Task: inverse folding
């Protein structure tokens, strides 16, 4: 499963994630007061993500002149401020010095770029079954070219539309994480020991109709797996209920369970990347 070992942008931002203990349905932490970033800020971040993807391509070509031109272009636009310390170190590293995991981490940022360009009304969103095409997205950016107008004329979709899509990707991410966690328990039943949040979730879904007693009769691992999958089905059923604005992104819970591990890992990475990017679009630096 792809994971981002280096925080490329700000310290807490990731490009993919592994399955982890879940949030319980009751969690309702009070969020800080936040403000969405302005359109020019979003445009600048999109350009820096594009520059990082361009930099990744130079690991193969080893084109020193193009590397110098890219550094100059980023510096002149003041885009380096979008990178965290590790991202800056990676960007400036000698050509050919990246590890495979570095290339993979940067490749995942194409998912964020797709979200940013979608928010700027410059592309559409594919379903979770389709990875973002980094080369096609880069073609929409004025990399190496005059970019001030790209920044100055940027416009964003309405906040209400962003909120609707944030809810979509957060729910999809939670449903997919539930399936990932269920499979990890299947492989290693001992992994559920001491997970108090899981016990809270099982109590919650029992209150919603999950037959916890029947599931527990076949052992604690079966109880946990069936409870997690009940929670995932509930999330997806509510998300795609009649009249849902998310029909184009609909996921069938049975299909989710039937996915092979590699495909499930890809869906998890895409959902996480989109959820993180959408949170930044609505909360900006306060989120990070």
Result:
């Amino acid at each position: 499963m792809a994971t981002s070992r280096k925080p490329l942008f700000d310290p807490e931002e990731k490009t993919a994630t592994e399955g982890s203990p879940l949030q319980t349905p009751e969690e309702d932490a009070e969020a800080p007061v936040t403000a969405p970033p302005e359109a020019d800020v979003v445009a600048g971040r999109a350009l820096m993500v594009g520059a990082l993807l361009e930099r990744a391509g130079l690991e193969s070509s080893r084109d020193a002149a193009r590397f110098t031109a890219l550094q100059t272009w980023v510096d002149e636009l003041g885009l380096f401020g979008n990178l965290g310390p590790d991202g800056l170190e990676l960007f400036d590293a000698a050509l050919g010095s990246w590890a495979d995991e570095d290339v993979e981490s940067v490749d995942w940022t194409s998912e964020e770029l797709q979200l940013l360009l979608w928010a700027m009304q410059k592309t559409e969103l594919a379903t979770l079954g389709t990875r973002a095409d980094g080369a096609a997205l880069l073609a929409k950016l004025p990399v190496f070219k005059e970019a001030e107008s790209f920044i100055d004329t940027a416009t964003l979709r309405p906040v209400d539309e962003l909120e609707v899509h944030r809810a979509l990707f957060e729910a999809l991410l939670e449903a997919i994480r539930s399936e990932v966690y269920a499979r990890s328990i299947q492989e290693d039943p001992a992994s559920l020991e001491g997970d108090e949040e899981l016990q809270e979730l099982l109590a919650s879904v029992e209150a919603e109709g999950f037959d916890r007693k029947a599931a527990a009769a076949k052992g604690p691992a079966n109880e946990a797996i069936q409870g997690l999958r009940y929670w995932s089905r509930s999330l997806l059923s509510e998300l795609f209920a009649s009249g849902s604005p998310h029909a184009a992104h609909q996921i069938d819970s049975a299909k989710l369970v039937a996915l092979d591990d590699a495909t499930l890992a890809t869906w998890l990475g895409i959902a996480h990347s989109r959820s993180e990017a959408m949170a930044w679009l609505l909360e900006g630096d306060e989120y990070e």
Remarks:
- Confidence is low (pLDDT under 50) at residues 1-7, 11-22.
- The radius of gyration is 21 Å.
